[in-house]
Amino acid sequence: MNIGKRFKMYRERRGLSQKEAAELLGVKGYQLANYECNRSEPNLRTLRLMSKVYQVSLDHLLATSPVYDDNFLEEQEIREKEIQEFKEKMETLLNDLVAHQVEDK
Questions:
Q1: What is the pTM of this model?
Q2: Contacts from 11-20 at CB under 8 Å and sequence distance 24+?
């Protein structure tokens, strides 16, 4: 995974649009898009802000930690999606159960 994809992944994990993230980072939307497409690189100030806004360490953001290689991050992303899908299914089941109990009364 290249660094631009990593920026995008962490932004999306925080549930931010490019526009929202750009405003929080104090950059133009096209600048953030350029970072995420590897057309340009953010300066140190922006990297530090990304770390804070995306709530991830600079090591993780820049993938300088050897533990967090591309395979690890991709597997983690898959696990997080599976967990989210499980939570949604459980919420649906709970809502159905509650609705069913109300009908029985």
A1: 0.61
A2: 11/36, 11/54, 13/54, 13/80, 14/53, 14/54, 14/55, 16/53
